[in-house]
Design goal:
Blueprint (H helix, E strand, L loop, with lengths): L8 H15 L5 H5 L22 E9 L2 E11 L2 E2 H10 L5 H10 L5 H14 L6 H7 L6 H12 L11 H31 L14 H9 L7 H14 L7 H11 L4 H12 L7 H15 L6 H12 L23 H17 L2 H20 L10 H11 L7 H22 L27
Antiparallel strand pairs: 1-2, 2-3
Helix pairs in contact: 4-18, 5-8, 7-8, 7-12, 8-9, 8-18, 9-10, 10-18, 11-12, 11-18, 12-18, 13-17, 14-16, 15-16, 15-17
This protein binds acetyl coenzyme *A and oxaloacetate ion.
The site of acetyl coenzyme *A (ACO) has 22 residues, from α17.
């Protein structure tokens, strides 16, 4: 944000930044000296144990005799391997997201009757409250759909008759309504963004009763409401893969931190959305597309490994890409050899690419996946890295004609399930304490100097 240019404010801001830089550097050696777990990580990169959960489990290495060994990744929802869950509903040619949401929220797979009732509850809550779109989305549109999503979730507080009711029944009702409404908010926020920021026509579609979450999303964001069953099933699969990732991922932890203070569900979910937006977390799916834009322009021969390697090395050294030095879609805090979600998405990306005549582009993604570990290791990095969920998700969405602005919001539409489950687990387990880690304070003691004696 720029201050008004009435008083040479840029010079003033520059001088304030200089003042900040003089007093605010933290010596990196302090982390070791005081045994501070930077990023809540132990020295070997494993996460500090910060809680107990029954919701999701993420496995990417095993520890033997105190040493950490890489392994193929596994993701477990409520004790069920993600691959088994996916194979289960896909082999019965059914949608899986609502069933997954039920499993994650309540802890067990639904019976047919429970699933029908749950689907109905979601369907009832899909429409937004009267005038919500007009007052909360269209009146103050945002150029960023994630930003609008967070603000909309916060403002749902004032549309709730009992926002501070912490009874389990009330929280479950709010969670179901949030899961149902997030896709509608994302679709309307995108429509507003297109209209007010991109000068496109405005169209707003109401969710249709009887359609599932994936179907309604496609129905709502497409101008002509048209989608095929194959597209809806693929989007449904993407939602299942993004629904949950343990208690320690940045957004779930943010949600748990806020929930542990006793605040309301809207505040906690809005915070989680803010976290997910970050480019090192869910926002990486958008960054991947931007990065491939650079790679596709900067690499002349997409089949030349040396040329790709050299371009990746330039990204790593901040000479290409967005200047962050990150190869988006690669690396993970837990996974080492593989992220099971990326493995599945890659399979679907490949068959879709074959159908759409986009195999060249798919192969470029594959080359980045294959060559990044080499490039990182050539630069001295010892960490074992693999493709994460964000590498292929955007390519799948692109081939389905879903606009880039909706990639991270789609992640939120799925992950709100995990966040709600973690919030409820945080709030409703007896004896849970407010999350309050410690910080080592290192500023030297100083006397107060009266104003007219300061130099
Ligand atoms: C849904 C999700 O959130 S999945 C993750 C999505 N994020 C991305 O794709 C962004 C790119 N990847 C990354 O930034 C990281 O791999 C993360 C954030 C995902 C994981 O981070 P961490 O577990 O903390 O890895 P960590 O930072 O310890 O990695 C060790 C080193 O490898 C580097 N590294 C790891 N991944 C990458 C990458 N993709 N590109 C460049 N360097 C990387 C780190 O910068 C770090 O370097 P340093 O030791 O010089 O500081
Ligand atoms: O677990 C993490 O750190 C990030 C991640 O993959 C997710 O939240 O899906």
């Amino acid at each position: 944000m720029q201050l008004a240019h009435t008083d040479g404010s840029m010079d003033f801001i520059k001088s304030l930044c200089g003042e900040f830089q003089k007093h605010n550097r933290i010596d990196p050696t302090y982390y070791e000296k005081w045994d501070v777990k930077r990023g809540l990580r132990n020295a070997d990169g494993t996460g500090v144990l910060a809680g107990i959960t029954q919701i999701g489990n993420v496995l990417g290495y095993y520890v033997q005799d105190g040493e950490r060994f890489p392994m193929e990744g596994k993701l477990i929802y409520r004790g069920i391997d993600l691959n088994d869950l996916v194979n289960g509903f896909m082999s019965e040619n059914r949608f899986g997201f609502e069933e997954t949401a039920y499993l994650l929220l309540f802890g067990a797979l639904p019976t047919r009757e429970q699933l029908t009732l749950f689907q109905r509850a979601l369907s009832v809550h899909q429409p937004l409250p009267p005038m919500f779109t007009e007052d909360m989305i269209l009146r103050a549109p945002s150029g960023d759909v994630m930003n609008k999503l967070a603000r909309s979730v916060l403002s749902l507080y004032s549309y709730d008759d009992a926002p501070e009711d912490r009874s389990l029944e009330s929280e479950m009702g709010k969670a179901i309504a949030l899961i149902a409404r997030l896709p509608t908010i994302a679709a309307h926020a995108y429509a507003a963004k297109r209209h007010y920021f991109d000068n496109e026509s405005l169209y707003l579609h109401r969710p249709q009763e009887g359609l599932g979450v994936a179907e309604n999303f496609l129905y709502s964001v497409r101008h002509d409401n048209q989608f095929t069953e194959e597209e809806a099933k693929l989007l449904d699969l993407c939602l299942v893969l993004h629904a949950e990732h343990g208690g320690g991922n940045n957004s779930a932890f943010a949600c748990r931190v806020l929930s542990s203070s006793g605040t309301d569900i809207y505040s906690a979910i809005a915070a989680a959305i803010g976290s997910l937006k970050g480019p090192r977390h869910g926002g990486a799916n958008k960054k991947v597309m931007e990065m491939f834009g650079y790679i596709e322009d900067g690499v002349k021969d997409w089949r030349d490994d040396d040329e790709i390697r050299s371009y990746l090395s330039r990204i790593l050294h901040k000479e290409a890409g967005d200047g962050s030095g990150l190869i988006y879609g690669m690396g993970h805090a837990i996974y080492t050899l593989s992220d099971p979600r990326a493995v599945l998405l890659k399979k679907f990306a490949k068959s879709l690419a074959a159908k759409k005549g986009m195999l060249d582009e798919f192969e470029l993604y594959e080359a980045v996946e294959r060559l990044t570990p080499e490039v990182l290791s050539a630069s001295g990095q010892r960490k074992v890295v693999c493709a994460n969920v964000d590498l292929y998700s955007g390519l799948v969405y692109k081939m389905m004609g879903i606009p880039q602005e909706l990639y991270t919001p789609l992640f939120a539409v799925a992950r709100v399930v995990g966040w709600c489950a973690h919030r409820i687990e945080e709030v409703y387990n007896p004896g849970n304490k407010i999350i309050r880690p410690a910080y080592k304070a290192v500023a030297p003691a100083r006397p107060f100097i009266p104003l007219d004696q300061r130099g």
